[in-house]
Predict the structure.
Amino acid sequence: MGFFQVLYKVSALAPLVLMAGVALLAWLGRFSDATLWRILRVGSFAALAMTGLAIVTSSQGMLWPGVIKATGLSMVMAALVQMLGTVIGGFSSRYLQGESGQARYVAALAAVLAAVHLLVLADHWLLLIGAWAFVGVALQSLLCFYPDRPFALLAAHKKRIADRLADVMLIIAAALAWVEVGSGSLSALMAHLSQHTISPALQVSAVALVLAVILRTALLPMHGWLIQVMEAPTPVSALLHAGVVNLGGVVLIQFAPLLEQATPARLLLLVVGLATAVLAGMVMLTRISIKVRLAWSTVAQMGFLLMECALGLYTLAALHLLGHSLYKAHAFLSASGIVRQTRLQALHGDSKPNALSLLWAPLLTISAVQLTTGLSAHAAWPWWWSAVLGLAWAPMIWQPAAPAGFAFRAGQLLTGLLMILGLALAAMLAHTLPLGLHNAPHPLLGLIALTGMATLYLCQAMLQRWPHLLSRWRRWSYAGFYVDEAYTRLALQLWPTRWIPHAGTHIKQEAITDVSR
């Protein structure tokens, strides 16, 4: 084994060891809060540097044959997670000044980062199941950092239920695949799929895997905990929305060879992802609270991300995952700035879009995306995905109904088109990155996705321009279509828990009664 191979293996595994070490030191409780924050800062920067070194010296292969494997995507994800963890850790040290339980917070944060590192490198079913389960266990301490907040306890309880159900689904998927392949190695599974057609047992395994991802990625109807996690400290929200909730997409991309042959699993993933994207997108438009709107935005984006995986557009899914992580981390950690920006926008008066622009905007954006893809000899994605992107980006060039000069309207239109062209070009360039991904678009599922996105655009346009036509729908949309209320009642009936603090704690009784009905 050469020097660079040894250096690569050491640097790839070092972040896991460093974060686990920080978690252990914080858990022992022998250091002051200030010292622990310094240890976390030093450990995080060291882990980030080692991850960068692993990418530079990358040879992409087995770190531990049949157990741990590094790919281009896994190392990029490891770098992203560690970078987010470093930033969130620094923000948390200032945000939690004077709070009790800081050592518990540092231990849980470092443990989450260590578990995520292990998850993205896992090449064995047992390691994958254990690492993902430990991410959820470590998160419980962060979600319940304020134990006197009932909705934080309720959110943690609902997430615990979803995690345990996901564990069961993963165990079923692993057992079926293990028996069929004769090995728990994920690399062995992929080699088997390259040589044999998929068997009924592996079809069921793929469906179980998809169900586990749906449960862990906060798709409907299990999304409520992600909305109520706003009761946790803001950096915890940033960690969840920017990193942890995206892990389902990473796992699906790793299992792309299995999904490509498992049409029932892809159809299930598409239906749930599309329904989540459409319904959460509608709800997001009716919410006023900035953080709650960001939370619903994450639910919608997760639906969109998993829909990309169902359609076989894995490179776009990876790009979406990276972009969403960076955006959501910035959005939550700078939530006060977004509030100020929203207030300034409200001072400009009526923001309804012009009725005519609702019609020509998607035609223009779809043409712009299709024109960009035409610059390459080989299309990065099918035509129907250009239409989906055009519908998603059309609101960027909606023209205001309020009177405005020609120069203002032209400038707004030009800015929007330049942004759309830039996004499309960036998506095309992402296909040239050495991520080791192979796309497998499914035309029929693509047409279903296009129909769903067209429905979402129509509802968005009507809510923006003619809200009175959808007044009853708007009320249901504001309430999240009551999906979470039904799930909460069922969860508390099947798995009762005490989520209301003791009587001495001040609680708004009306709110509690509202949720427990």
Summary: Confidence is low (pLDDT under 50) at residues 504-517.
